[in-house]
Amino acid sequence: MKLVRTLRWGLDGIYKAASVLAALCLIVILLLIVIQMLARWTGEVFPGAAEYAGYAMAAASFLAFASALNKGIHIRVSILHQIVGQTTQRLLEIWCFALGTATMWYFVYYAYRFVYWSWKFNDISQGQDKTPLWIPQSLMFIGAVILAAALTDRLLQLLFAGKTEQAHQLKEVATGE
């Protein structure tokens, strides 16, 4: 039991750290916009600002996905979930989490290859910034790995514990509590 608690604590810490990194990426986007505005007002040019903001947005998205899933605040269509019985709900959730987990690990595999080959061939962005693409791609890859781990975590919870923490949160949202 202590191992399970330690593992749960570690995973929750990883999800929280990823959400903090996502928030920092959003702050970077804000700073890039402000710096670009200042550059325009002073007649200067800030090459690559739009590319850097795009990289930060992709990183913020992928890093935030696992935390959103862990807290149950991701977008979920629950109409069907509310009208079927508990056994069907459980089977639907197992199917959805299994499909999501498999899809995400498939994505992780190809994201790794994408980052590796960008690094291997020293692929650089085609914008003015000439950034090695493996750097922003790595943040997306890290976020994808964390999301795949979160989906696997939820699937295992559903299979072995019978339900996830999200079931309680979903009930609260559905009843307006």
Short account of what is shown:
The chain has 177 residues and is an all-alpha fold. It has helices at residues 2-41, 49-71, 79-83, 86-120, 134-161, 165-175.
Shape, per Cα inertia axes: elongated
How much helical structure, as a percent, in the residues?
Answer: over 70%
The SSE string, one letter per element, is HHHHHH
Radius of gyration: 20 Å
**Approximately what portion of the residues adopt beta-strand conformation?**
under 5%
Measured between the Cα atoms of the first and last residue, the distance is 31 Å
Structural class: mainly alpha
Largest sheet: none
Mean of residue pLDDT? 87
Overall strand count: 0
Description:
By secondary structure, this protein is mainly alpha-helical. Helix 2 runs parallel beside helix 5 and helix 4 packs antiparallel against helix 5. The longest helix has 40 residues. The two termini are 31 Å apart.
Task: Map the helices and strands.
Elements: H1 2-41, H2 49-71, H3 79-83, H4 86-120, H5 134-161, H6 165-175
What labels would you give this structure?
177 residues; mainly alpha; 80% helix; elongated
